[in-house]
């Protein structure tokens, strides 16, 4: 899933970029502006630029500088679709979205006279103003040391891609499409490459409680793979059902684990042992933080780096074991993963 945040000066063409992404690329649109207008109306206030600034700053001050975009990102993430978050305006919002997977910030600008004419033609609830007020509103939002408040200059300066909308809509669309091609066809890093192989291995898993896979690599060479499944020759969960065991972790969380299967990490390590492959100094890739048993095996076989796609909600003990043993643990995303029905 790709998430694009859009920032820029007033009337520069943020909506035009949104239209192109929605109509031509199937993105789903989420708008800070629309979010604020709904809140303004709920509070019984007049919808104008002053109200938007006041309510936006109030929500950020009461919660966090990134609270509004965080709400929109949660909705976007739940959709599972490529999405756009329009009207990113504060440093806190930019910094929060930077930590999200596959996030890119677009900024758009144009000559102020051109932008004012476009705003007048747009005729939205906040655009019925004269040119001097238009420029005054923009300057008020351009710089601010408070991370809760608008700072368009910071957002624009920290954008991944910047667009000049001084020409036609077609020219702007061409700029956007060129960037989309660059994003879409970006060559994966080695970590992304091997994590994708681990995810491919997971498709062989035979327990729907946790279809995870694992690969172990050294010097960028694939050594062994593994996936969740019953011991060799024994029936699979997908065929005969699960064998559950209830456990309670250190924080009091109750989980029901299927104990019929061997974990992906364990299977990969077993494959290496059977083939006489030494794992000293290797890197292991897996979907989430290994369990305690897997962590101990990883440590004992000499693996020095573990890369996980996400954190496991009950993985704190394993993280501590890795820390004590000097095993480097990395995560693609900070999201915490929980198995279904736990």
In short:
This protein is of the alpha/beta class. Helices cover 44% and strands 20% of the residues. Strands 6, 7, 10, 11, 12 and 13 form a six-stranded mixed β-sheet that branches. Strands 2-3-1-4-5 form a five-stranded parallel β-sheet, sandwiched between helices. A two-stranded antiparallel sheet has the order 8-9.
Provide structural commentary:
With 342 residues, the protein is of the alpha/beta class. The chain has helices spanning 14-25, 32-42, 49-62, 67-79, 91-98, 112-122, 131-142, 152-157, 169-184, 190-202, 237-240, 264-275, 292-300, 316-325; strands spanning 3-8, 28-31, 83-86, 103-109, 161-164, 213-218, 221-227, 244-248, 254-258, 283-288, 305-312, 328-331, 336-337. Strands 6, 7, 10, 11, 12 and 13 form a 6-stranded mixed β-sheet that branches. A 5-stranded parallel β-sheet has the order 2-3-1-4-5, sandwiched between helices. Strands 8-9 form a two-stranded antiparallel sheet. It starts with a strand and ends in a 5-residue tail after the last strand.
Largest sheet: 6 strands, mixed
Q: Give the number of helices.
A: 14
List the secondary-structure elements in sequence, H or E.
EHEHHHEHEHHHEHHEEHEEHEHEHEE
Calculate the terminal CA-CA distance, rounded to whole Å.
26 Å
Mean pLDDT: 87
Q: Over all CA atoms, what is the radius of gyration?
A: 25 Å
Number of strands: 13
Low-confidence stretches: none
Q: What is the beta-strand fraction?
A: 15-25%
The geometry reads as elongated
- Alpha-beta classification: alpha/beta
* Proportion of residues in helical segments: 40-55%
């Amino acid at each position: 899933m790709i998430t694009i945040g859009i920032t820029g000066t007033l009337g520069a063409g943020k909506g035009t970029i949104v239209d192109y992404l929605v109509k031509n690329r199937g993105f789903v649109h989420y708008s800070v502006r629309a979010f604020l207008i709904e809140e303004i109306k709920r509070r019984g206030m007049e919808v104008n630029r002053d109200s938007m600034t006041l309510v936006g700053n109030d929500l950020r001050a009461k919660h966090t500088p990134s609270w509004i975009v965080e709400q929109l990102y949660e909705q976007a993430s739940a959709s599972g679709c490529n999405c756009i978050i329009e009207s990113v305006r504060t440093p806190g919002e930019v910094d929060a979205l930077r930590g999200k997977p596959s996030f890119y910030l677009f900024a758009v600008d144009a000559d102020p006279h051109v932008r004012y004419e476009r705003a007048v033609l747009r005729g939205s609830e906040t655009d019925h103003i004269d040119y001097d007020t238009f420029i005054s509103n923009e300057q008020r939002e351009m710089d601010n040391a408070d991370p809760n408040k608008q700072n368009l200059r910071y957002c624009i300066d920290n954008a991944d891609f910047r667009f000049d909308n001084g020409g036609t809509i077609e020219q702007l669309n061409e700029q956007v499409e060129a960037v989309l091609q660059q994003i879409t066809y970006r060559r994966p890093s080695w970590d992304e490459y091997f994590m994708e192989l681990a995810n491919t291995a997971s498709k062989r898993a035979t327990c729907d409680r946790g279809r995870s896979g694992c690969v172990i690599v050294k010097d960028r060479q694939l050594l062994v793979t593994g996936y969740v499944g019953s011991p060799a020759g024994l029936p699979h969960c997908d065929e005969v059902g699960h064998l559950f065991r209830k456990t309670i972790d250190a924080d009091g969380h109750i989980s029901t684990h299927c104990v019929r299967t061997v974990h992906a990490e364990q299977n990969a390590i077993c494959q290496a042992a059977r083939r006489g492959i030494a794992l000293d100094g290797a890197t292991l890739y897996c979907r989430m933080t290994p369990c305690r048993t897997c962590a101990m095996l990883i440590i004992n076989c000499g693996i020095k780096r573990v890369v996980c796609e996400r954190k496991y909600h009950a993985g704190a003990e394993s993280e501590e074991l890795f820390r004590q043993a000097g095993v480097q643990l990395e995560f693609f995303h900070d999201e915490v993963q929980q198995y279904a029905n736990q």
